[in-house]
TrEMBL record:
<keyword id="KW-0862">Zinc</keyword>
<dbReference type="InterPro" id="IPR001214">
    <property type="entry name" value="SET_dom"/>
</dbReference>
<dbReference type="GO" id="GO:0140943">
    <property type="term" value="F:histone H4K20 trimethyltransferase activity"/>
</dbReference>
<dbReference type="InterPro" id="IPR044422">
    <property type="entry name" value="SMYD5_SET"/>
</dbReference>
<keyword id="KW-0949">S-adenosyl-L-methionine</keyword>
<keyword id="KW-0863">Zinc-finger</keyword>
<dbReference type="GO" id="GO:0045814">
    <property type="term" value="P:negative regulation of gene expression, epigenetic"/>
</dbReference>
<dbReference type="GO" id="GO:0140955">
    <property type="term" value="F:histone H3K36 trimethyltransferase activity"/>
</dbReference>
<feature type="region of interest" description="Disordered">
    <location>
        <begin position="373"/>
        <end position="400"/>
    </location>
</feature>
<protein>
    <recommendedName>
        <fullName>Protein-lysine N-trimethyltransferase SMYD5</fullName>
        <ecNumber>2.1.1.359</ecNumber>
        <ecNumber>2.1.1.372</ecNumber>
    </recommendedName>
</protein>
<keyword id="KW-0808">Transferase</keyword>
<keyword id="KW-0479">Metal-binding</keyword>
<keyword id="KW-0963">Cytoplasm</keyword>
<dbReference type="GO" id="GO:0032259">
    <property type="term" value="P:methylation"/>
</dbReference>
<keyword id="KW-0489">Methyltransferase</keyword>
<feature type="compositionally biased region" description="Acidic residues">
    <location>
        <begin position="374"/>
        <end position="400"/>
    </location>
</feature>
<feature type="domain" description="SET">
    <location>
        <begin position="11"/>
        <end position="342"/>
    </location>
</feature>
Length: 400
């Protein structure tokens, strides 16, 4: 069942109860112009994907800020070790500020991040500390997960671990539980569907294995409600439906910074050519696998419903986990603030295809203005299949 937040207080917006099936929505209480920042927020928890980190995408263990320099990143991604990036002052990485956990060596972009991670969850999750307790369960948990989830990754078991550790470490444990319980919830049947989607055919066995390891790591009374079979499935579903992708890259930061330089025309043209060539080289080696990637849970962002014609979109302008929700067109006071749960490619597809992806991944049928306006259009795909749009899950039409 959807639960709602009434306790968020950000000027210009409010979370409202709008009844089933959506449960709640985020509404503008003042007008916004296209490009305006609607709100900014830090996640409740954030975590880089396991394979992404293994492949050498180095980011702060707390805020996901890149730890590689832009040139270093370009060397790794292009395979060209002698490449020199001009305008080195535009590299965003400040290695002099980097530090690590003295116990386990996990790396951070600055002391602040290290201290905040320690204060929020790292006391429970610090590996060296756990080794002393004779426990390597965390590594085991990540290994089991990695064997289930080859790239492209969409979720992280460590995000679940960080939720439990955050509660376990909190002074006010009930308050910490409440923070996460505010996020969108589903019925038990829906949770099962999401777990199925996230973990694949063997999801029952996998839920059991993951839950068993988690239960051995997290013994505190405050988190036991998430370690029952039902509770664990609800936690997986919570991450599955609310997880927001976060991507950071020192190279794209450098490109952004050099592009803002005031340069003579000729230098500008040379620079553009250099950047085009660099991206071609990188694409040849890495494809589109360029960023530090992870996922995070946000309180306000999770209250934003989907529209195929969104009026807002999340941005990550600080090259870390700080989410900035911006208006993509003018928004009137009273209008619901909607984002797209679909990527640009999926958003450009037919109503039928969009509905299929949304149903499978988010378990709802979209009734946004675009979908309603297209509802009378003849859908070739669904006609051919001889159904009315309520096709079975085995329909593979979107996986082309
Ligand atoms: Zn950081
Ligand atoms: Zn540590
Ligand atoms: Zn729609």
């Amino acid at each position: 069942m959807a639960e709602c937040r009434e306790d968020m207080d950000v000027p210009g917006i409010e979370v409202r109860v709008i009844g089933e099936p959506k449960g709640k929505g985020l509404f503008a209480v003042k007008p916004f112009k296209a490009g305006d920042v609607i709100f900014e927020e830090r996640p409740l928890v954030c975590c880089q994907f396991a394979w992404n980190a293994d492949y050498g995408y180095a980011s702060c263990d707390f805020c996901m800020r890149p730890l590689e320099g832009a040139e270093e990143n370009a060397h790794r991604l292009s395979g060209k070790k002698d490449l020199i990036l001009p305008y080195p002052q535009c590299c965003p990485t400040r290695k002099e500020n980097h530090c690590e956990c003295a116990l386990c060596g996990v790396r951070y972009c600055c002391v602040q991040c290290k201290d905040e991670a320690w204060a929020q969850y790292h006391q429970v999750l610090c590996l060296r500390k756990r080794e002393r307790d004779g426990s390597h369960k965390l590594e085991m948990l990540v290994d089991v997960w990695k064997n289930l989830h080859y790239p492209p990754e969409t979720a992280s078991i460590m995000l679940l671990a960080r939720i439990l550790a955050t509660v376990q470490q909190a002074q006010d444990k009930d308050g910490a539980v409440h923070l996460f319980m505010q996020l969108c919830h589903q019925t038990v049947n829906e949770q099962e569907e999401i777990a199925h989607k996230l973990l694949g055919e063997q999801f029952v066995g996998q839920l059991f294995t993951l839950r068993k390891i988690m239960s051995e790591i997290f013994t505190d009374q405050s988190v036991q409600h998430w370690l029952t079979p039902e509770g664990f499935q609800s936690l997986v579903a919570l991450v599955g439906t609310n997880g927001q992708g976060v991507g950071t890259s020192p190279l794209s930061e450098w490109v952004k910074n050099v592009s803002a330089l005031k340069l003579p025309q000729q230098d500008k043209e040379n620079l553009d050519r250099f950047i085009d060539k660099l991206y071609d080289d990188v694409e040849e080696v890495m494809g589109s696998f360029l960023n530090n990637e992870g996922s995070a849970l946000y309180a306000l962002q999770s209250a934003c419903n989907h529209s195929c014609e969104p009026n807002a979109a999340p941005n990550f302008p600080y090259s870390n986990f700080q989410l900035v929700m911006c208006a993509v067109r003018d928004i009137a006071a009273g209008e619901e603030i909607c984002v797209s749960y679909l990527d640009d490619c999926a958003l450009g597809r037919s109503r039928h295809s969009r509905h299929k992806i949304l149903r499978e991944n988010y378990l709802f049928t979209c009734h946004c203005s675009k979908c309603e306006s297209e509802s009378n259009e003849i859908d070739v795909t669904s006609e051919e299949e001889g159904d009315d749009g309520n096709e079975s899950e085995s329909d593979e039409e979107i996986d082309d």
